[in-house]
Amino acid sequence: MSATVIITGAAGGMGIPSARRFAAQGRPLLLCDVNADKLEGFAEELRSEGARVTTLAGDISAASFPQDLVAVLGDAPLHALVHTAGLSPTMADPLRILEVNYFATERLVAALLPRFEKGGCAVLISSMSGYLLSDPAMVDAVRDLLAGKGSEGVERFAVNPGMGYTLSKRAVIGLVGREAAAFGARGLRIVSIAPGFIDTPMSQAEAESSEQMRQMITMTPAGRLGLGDEIASVAEFLCSPGASYISGCDIKVDGGILGRLGI
Ligand SMILES: NC(=O)c1ccc[n+]([C@@H]2O[C@H](COP(=O)([O-])OP(=O)(O)OC[C@H]3O[C@@H](n4cnc5c(N)ncnc54)[C@H](O)[C@@H]3O)[C@@H](O)[C@H]2O)c1
Fold first, then answer.
1. What is the reported pTM?
2. Are 235 and 82 in contact (CB under 8 A)?
């Protein structure tokens, strides 16, 4: 297997198991994370196990990041992107969350689209929270954003980090729907995964600060938190020939919580 897999957030709770799965396939990896020390430590570990690993440490929201990534990729064919880098509500203010989770994602997808080999796939990570947007005016604001009618509406509704997060993830779900045609025209696919409550450093920090989240975790039909590898396994499947007719949609991997909430 010679075409590269790019993983963002590669030092994080979903990025690490994703990298391990594609390394086990024998794929070359290009791993990115803003945490340079963790990224290099993990890359060294994988290399010592025989994996071919290149790294790019940096902030995905930096204007130059997509070009830097394409430059590091060089002439290598690209098989897949698994884009897990993101911020949760306790980590930043609402506009920064929108910037990292949505706008940087949109730029990354646009830059990589021409670089995939035929049959390639982009997997983005949305969130179950993207489904919790009930106000029609907010839904319209996301629709306007995706239609290129400006970000003013979304920014106006992002009154706190939680709303910024929810709006950003709803927009990611819309992005894969919007981009599926451009990907399909090149024989490619683009999909998102909506995790529920997954046991990673991010969700541990969120649960500590939110009683509502702790309550919802107890309502999850699976009766436990998900594991980072339970997201990675779905990402691996989505990038495989077995998922060749899945594109433009969001896959819920949430232990059943959204279904239980009637969503
Ligand atoms: N953990 C959950 O329960 C959960 C639920 C729903 C959605 N998600 C989403 O899943 C994705 C992965 O989350 P996770 O739980 O693995 O989180 P995590 O915090 O464990 O990992 C995220 C990684 O992204 C990196 N990162 C953050 N901002 C970055 C930036 N600007 N540039 C480059 N790298 C950056 C971090 O350094 C970290 O290594 C996120 O998009 C998150 O919103 C997580």
1. 0.98
2. yes
Residues with C-beta less than 6 Å from any ligand 1 atom: 9, 11-15, 33-35, 59-61, 84-88, 100, 125, 127, 195, 197-198, 200-203
CA 181 – ligand 1 centroid, Å: 27
Domain residue limits, the chain? 4-128+172-260
* Pair of tokens at residue 72: 């590091």
pLDDT tens digits for 143-178? Answer: 999 999 999 999 999 999 999 999 999 999 999 999
Tell me how far CA of residue 255 lies from CA of 15, 115, 197, in angstroms.
20, 34, 8
Domain spanning 4-128+172-260: which superfamily? NAD(P)-binding Rossmann-like Domain (3.40.50.720)
Residue nearest to atom 42 of ligand 1 (CA): 86
pLDDT tens-digit profile of 89-138?
A: 999 999 999 999 999 999 999 999 999 999 999 999 999 999 999 899 99
Comparing C-alpha atoms, which of 227, 230, 249, 232 is closest to residue 80? Answer: 232
- Nearest residue (by CA) to ligand 1, atom 17, is 202
Residue 126 CA: nearest ligand 1 atom is 7
